[in-house]
Design brief:
With 408 residues, the protein is α+β, with helices and mostly antiparallel strands. The chain is 18% helix and 33% strand. Strand 15 and strand 16 form a beta hairpin.
Length: 408
């Protein structure tokens, strides 16, 4: 992981903001975080992704989110035996993976004591080992890695590293090129686009996830704010960078510069850090998420490790373009924590973000309404809130672990 470098001698520049009409291809309303209790938004998200789920089952899934997270946090304290887990919303079963029968039995008992239906599986690799194996393929030094070109993920449910290849690529592999800890999955045929835009803008009086941010020739969305060594940083997507030092603003108010060394866009990482040099913004210490053009909710915590983000979590996105016909922030459900078909990014379904949403803050919305920063929006299926509603984000634990995120 690359460390953030401080910039010196960068001239400030104000980038003018422009406005265009909202996209016309509005689709059906989606689940939305409107700044209140997260239960109803979570229910709607589950029923959007799983149309066959009953209301009662979706409500139970929503109200048990924090309890499931509590179980995973407890199990992850022993990384040598913890293999991850996922939640099956249709059956209501929480699946956890452990490397020994003894720890699996204890995990099942711990889940039952919390009131969860738990299926504990004994697996070969712990989660950290799976990630290390995935990194060896991402390095691309052997035949498999060279063909994969970064299309590598981790599938917790099978305890395997997944590599996405086309049928032609798979046929060209030597018989012994795929180790027993890896499996080939089909490369995606869906059209996917970086959600970058050059025209739409917005206004606000403080930095918060979801603002429109602009540079000369481009625009994206603001994610979360954080600090290191006394410097405040405004995060967005790495692919939003221009390849040279660029100066970023919101609604004509200068934020600060983004250096190419602080724009990462490779594998499961798509993140950039804008140095906040505007004195007013730099002095602020609150972490905020925009709910609308004028209202916001506080950031109460963050995902410190990948063990905090699992399949079945309801996440919402605060970005420059709000969902058509929907107040608040649109929400979806995590369906892959490391999608090999799209660089190992985290996949969520139920909403298709729009051009200009890149870099927006993706956050976990439990039923309590306390919001936790999960990552930065990267890309989605082509279009704006169209079917299929799939999107991908870069998880906070994968980049700059030394950052201290602004909370409220």
């Amino acid at each position: 992981m690359r460390r953030i470098r401080l910039l010196a001698g960068v001239a400030a520049a104000v980038v003018a903001a422009s406005m265009v009409a909202a996209p016309a291809n509005a689709a059906d309303p989606v689940a939305a975080d409107e700044g209140r209790d997260g239960t109803e938004a979570s229910i709607l998200a589950y029923r959007s992704v799983y149309p066959q789920i009953s209301y009662d089952a979706a409500k139970l899934a929503a109200t048990q989110q924090e309890t499931r997270k509590q179980l995973h946090e407890q199990l992850a304290k022993d990384p040598q035996t913890y293999g991850g887990g996922h939640f099956d919303a249709l059956s209501g079963i929480t699946h956890v993976a452990l490397t020994t029968q003894e720890t699996a039995d204890r995990a099942a008992e711990a889940g039952r004591s919390l009131g969860l239906v738990v299926n504990a599986h004994v697996v070969r690799y712990n989660y950290d080992e799976l990630e290390r194996l995935a990194d060896t393929v991402r390095a691309g030094t052997d035949e498999l890695g060279k063909l994969a070109r970064g299309r590598v993920g981790v599938e917790v449910s099978t305890n395997k590293v997944t590599v996405a290849l086309t049928a032609e690529e798979e046929a060209s592999l030597p018989k012994d090129a795929v180790p027993d800890w890896a499996t080939i999955v089909p490369a995606t045929t869906e059209e996917i686009e970086d959600d970058v835009c050059t025209t739409r803008a917005n206004c606000n009086d403080s930095l918060r996830a979801g603002l429109v941010i602009t540079r000369s020739g481009g625009g994206c969305s603001l994610g979360f704010t954080a600090r290191s060594s006394g410097v405040r940083w405004a995060l967005t997507a790495g692919h939003c960078g221009s390849g040279t030092v660029s100066n970023w603003s919101t609604a004509g108010t200068f934020i600060g510069p983004l250096s190419p060394v602080n724009a990462l866009n490779s594998g499961p990482v798509d993140a950039a850090a804008i140095q906040v040099t505007n004195a007013g913004y730099a002095a602020d210490t609150l972490g905020r998420i925009a709910i609308s053009g004028s209202t916001w909710v506080p950031v109460k915590g963050r995902a410190h490790t990948m063990s905090f983000i699992w399949v079945g979590d309801v996440v919402c996105i605060s970005a420059r373009y709000a969902a058509p016909a929907t107040s608040g922030n649109p929400c979806g459900v995590v369906t892959k924590t490391s999608d090999a078909a799209v660089r190992g990014l985290v996949r969520y379904e139920g909403y298709d973000p729009c051009p200009g949403d890149s870099g927006g803050g993706v956050y976990w919305l439990p039923s309590s309404g306390r919001r936790y920063a999960f990552g930065l929006h990267s890309r989605s299926t082509a279009g704006c809130n169209t079917t299929p509603r799939k999107a991908w984000f870069s998880a906070l634990p994968r980049f700059w672990p030394g950052l201290s995120y602004d909370l409220a």
